């Protein structure tokens, strides 16, 4: 079962439909005590600003719960702002603390045509793509909506360029994966990648 964390800053409806489309059972939890025992993956969504979202996670009890969950080597998937919250901190609207599952600071995009960065953009894989896009392993297009991002780091497995700036589109470690883009809004390829990520985390 995939449990979606509902802390007041997520695109829950689109995610539920996307997960159902790939045959996944879902549950929406507003507080840690709601979490079903059969949860295999925690999914942290998010749209909006980092600081208020981090505060909502802390007030709801999810902040410490997610950190403890990951320390037990249990899997977490973060999407858009959810991916950013998995990182150490952010400079959006001042300094805010993140969950620290991935090293790095979320910073405002610079040297770009305009903000926010909205629309379809390509993701280039560092190494082989996990899924062959029509026989090509090099890159695929996904839907982005954001003004802040994580610089390319040792956890980066997918990179996107916007203007003169490159940033982490996908970060990955043994029990955590983050997407800066919205796979649930990225058509069939987004669904394929979402399915791959969940299977990878459930291994």
From TrEMBL:
InterPro entries referenced in this protein's UniProt entry, alphabetically: Class_I_gatase-like, GATASE, Imidazole-glycPsynth_HisH
Domain of life: Bacteria
Keyword Lyase tagged: yes
Active site annotation, chain numbering: 80, 182, 184
Any GO CC annotation of this UniProt entry: cytoplasm
Subcellular location: Cytoplasm
EC number: 4.3.2.10, 3.5.1.2
GO molecular function: glutaminase activity; imidazoleglycerol-phosphate synthase activity; lyase activity
Reaction(s) catalysed (UniProt annotation): 5-[(5-phospho-1-deoxy-D-ribulos-1-ylimino)methylamino]-1-(5-phospho-beta-D-ribosyl)imidazole-4-carboxamide + L-glutamine = D-erythro-1-(imidazol-4-yl)glycerol 3-phosphate + 5-amino-1-(5-phospho-beta-D-ribosyl)imidazole-4-carboxamide + L-glutamate + H(+); L-glutamine + H2O = L-glutamate + NH4(+)
Ranges of residues in domain Glutamine amidotransferase: 4-186
Keyword Lyase set for record: yes
Record key words, sorted: Amino-acid biosynthesis, Cytoplasm, Glutamine amidotransferase, Histidine biosynthesis, Hydrolase, Lyase, Transferase
Primary location recorded for the protein, binned into one broad class: cytoplasm
GO biological process entries: L-histidine biosynthetic process
PANTHER family on file: IMIDAZOLE GLYCEROL PHOSPHATE SYNTHASE SUBUNIT HISH (PTHR42701)
HAMAP family per record: HisH
Name the UniProt record assigns to this protein: Imidazole glycerol phosphate synthase subunit HisH
Organism: Thermovirga lienii (strain ATCC BAA-1197 / DSM 17291 / Cas60314)
Taxonomic classification: Bacteria, Thermotogati, Synergistota, Synergistia, Synergistales
